[in-house]
Amino acid sequence: MSDKPFSRSAVPPRDTAVSRSGTTARPLAPVPRSPAAASPDREFQFSSADFERVRDLIYRHAGISLSPIKQDMVYSRLARRLRARGDRTFGEYLDRAQREPQEWETFVNSLTTNLTSFFREAHHFEILAERLRKHVARSPFRIWCSAASTGEEPYSLAITACEAFNSLSPPVQIIATDIDTNVLATAEKGVYGLDRVERLSRERMQRFFLKGTGTQAGQARVRPELQRLIEFRRINLLDKSWAVQGPFDALFCRNVMIYFDKPTQHGILQRFVPLLKPDGLLFAGHSESFLHSADLFRSLGRTVYERADVRAR
To answer: What is the pLDDT of residues 113-140, one digit of tens each?
Structure first.
């Protein structure tokens, strides 16, 4: 998107399966049996067997453990794809998704939840800012944002870095990844409705955003300087290899682990350890706890962790 429609500042008026770690995960909770026939308000037949197949596929390929209560949500999101592709049954559609790589990507995207906002769980950015201010700039301070969603989190990281160094070109490198290609495309554009940025301070809006005009009125775009600090990539945390290379000074994996079962979480955390510097920090979501992986990470409080193999400071 061209910079032209934007002014200089913007002020708003996740069955039994084997995890990638090699451990056998616990079986998913059984789904209560329901009639196979479509209900009067449903366009397509969606049986318990269909739902179990969806649960198995998304678990094995994305690690997401769908709760039995998500049956209506799954129907709602996937019925759109049946309609779009002209499939008559969920069985036909799921066969297609497994056969066609592009539709498989859309299938995964459809079942991924992307709830995010700028400076969500603000205390994490305060902790990061303190660590950034202590950084000796012989090499860039490296951050992996492993659930970038539509970009609010990585751009919040970039803003924090700019403020910590009082510069639009701080010595910081941010790798932002997600399994969902649709949200990554949005993140790379860096354009948001003013309602998404309305909670930001006037000072931050003026310094880090461009206000849309003409056809872009009602929108704001992050400044190019912020975009240059971030590299967006698609990564599935269950893939056998990740297109990232450590070590990182900070790793943000927030509100992701809640979709995985404990064995899957442990396997991912085990792979995080060598990617994080000995004094690096791992940031988790407010409802996440890694007490079951105390052999890997030690809590510092406020859902911030350090490597357990490093002597307590």
So the answer is: 666 899 999 999 999 999 999 998 789 9
Q: What is the DSSP pairing of strand 219-222 with strand 248-252?
A: unpaired
Active site residue 142: no
Q: Which of 77, 85, 96, 131 is catalytic?
A: 77
Torsion angle (degrees, nearest 10) of CA 197, 200, 203, 205? -10
Whether 178 is catalytic is yes
Radius of gyration of the chain (CA): 21
Angstrom CA distances, 301 to 126, 135, 306, stand at: 14, 21, 10
CB 267 within 8 A of CB 236: no
The model's pTM is 0.75
pLDDT tens by residue, 74-101: 998 899 999 999 999 999 999 999 999 8
List 178, 180, 249, 261, catalytic entry = 178
Does the bond joining 247 to the residue before it have cis omega, within 30 degrees of 0? yes
Give me 292's structure tokens. Answer: 């079951």
Chain centroid to Cα 300, Å, comes to 23
